[in-house]
Amino acid sequence: MSAMLLAQEPLIRGTVFTVCLLAMMLWEVAARRRPQRMDRRHRWPGNLSIVALDTLVVRLVFPLSAVGAALVAAEGGWGLFNMVDAPIWLALIASVVVLDMAIYLQHRLFHAVPWLWRLHRMHHADLECDVTTGLRFHPLEILISMVIKLAVITLLGASAMAVLIFEVLLNATSMFNHGNVRLPVGVDRHLRLVVVTPDMHRVHHSIVREETDSNFGFNLPWWDRLFGTYRDQPAAGHLGMTIGIESFRESRDLRLGRMLLQPFVTPDRDGK
Question: What EC number(s) has UniProt assigned to this enzyme (predicted)?
Fold first, then answer.
């Protein structure tokens, strides 16, 4: 069963990724939340190229996937849930929740530490926020994130199934909550009690620093409320807010080559 799960992981993740990406693209056409001043043809080539590059880099540097790391930990008896006799369902749910909290804390770390912010700011430098923004991360950030993820999986002793569920959820919700899609106000208000919605996460992509440093959650919305980083709405409203960061406002900054160089050029915000 474990070997089969490991073998099927790329197919499962690839299928869910493709379905979610296409569904969000269609939703953005059918029910757009904000008009986009920067056309997709200027943004999408770089954003989609970076996710392809990230996938290649991770596969080359980490031949053993996160699911594979969970299997290795299980075989060696490493980690909390490989040492305690907990019900399978409880260990699975707890693992997904703890992994999500770890991603929240990691996200805050990438905003707080200057050299990590240099890597992460490429994600924020997109001049619009849509489904492809949720895929736009610098390869060096992806590699560091993978190291942190593998460490948490090993310490936690998360099962391969729990890790696969978490990976699929994280990828799908990242595309969802970055989507330029419109939800009825009442639906959004209730939905953001259980999952990060597009209106909730869009605040995080505001050019206003106080708003950029809020709403860090990708999947579960509880951590922002628990740790005091929740902001309900942007001050200028979703139609009036400016997306991006001050340092990179030109269309040329959306090209793949310039995106990859962003961590190594002029810093912004308080010398970071």
Answer: 1.-.-.-
